[in-house]
Amino acid sequence: MSPPTSTPKTQTMGKQDEFSTAIAEDLAEWASHLFPDLAGDLKGDNFFDQISDGILLCQYATQLHQRMTESRSGSKESSKRRLQGVRVASARAFLPIEPPKYHSREFGPRSRAGAPFWVRENIASFLKWCRSVGFPDSILFETEDLVSRKNLRSVTVCLLEVARLSGKFGVEVPEIVHLEKQIDAELAAERRGVSKREGVVKPSTPKNNSPVADVSSLDEVVSYAYT
């Protein structure tokens, strides 16, 4: 019997697993530092299991919402609550009317037979808040992606973009986001050097202002950081 060959679908799933696994440890360390009491024994190998009840996600969004609210104190912006000079994935960012509402773990036990309704409500509340900020659907994940762990890459991409946004309001960001900024600065310096040699000044666009749905660039950062 000939050995099984990998199909494009299995290769894609393998890349998704590698991508998510590589970043999960960094995200776990970051979340543990932000929420030591809530995170508990959060580690890279249990990161997605631990956040799958949506509580940590909603707590993080609540903290970020508070920072965003403080940044607008005294602002004369319109009732649309636009965040001046802030963008998410090249789209304008807005301050939602309220932070996400969510259930605590005391609300009810988690069943091994399936996620209880309050878990799905928590995740849905987090995603609703993200949409209110202005995140496009291409950046967001579906509730089932996290509940069933079936598309962790989408979950990872979304969390990284939320982390980038939080960095603009003074919230600590994961190490990989710092690394992205470092790489962006190096590339921008190289472009400026080439432009000067050519006698042409070309404006550079930071990667953090481009849609992070371009996962190939994320793969490059992950490869750079973890190899």
UniProtKB/TrEMBL annotation:
A cellular component term, taken from the record's GO annotations: actin filament
SUPFAM superfamilies hit by this protein: Calponin-homology domain, CH-domain
Superkingdom classification of source: Eukaryota
A molecular-function term among this protein's GO annotations: cytoskeletal anchor activity
GO BP annotations, alphabetical order: actin crosslink formation
Domain Calponin-homology (CH): start-end pairs: 21-166
Protein's name in the database: Calponin-homology (CH) domain-containing protein
Organism name: Dibothriocephalus latus (Fish tapeworm)
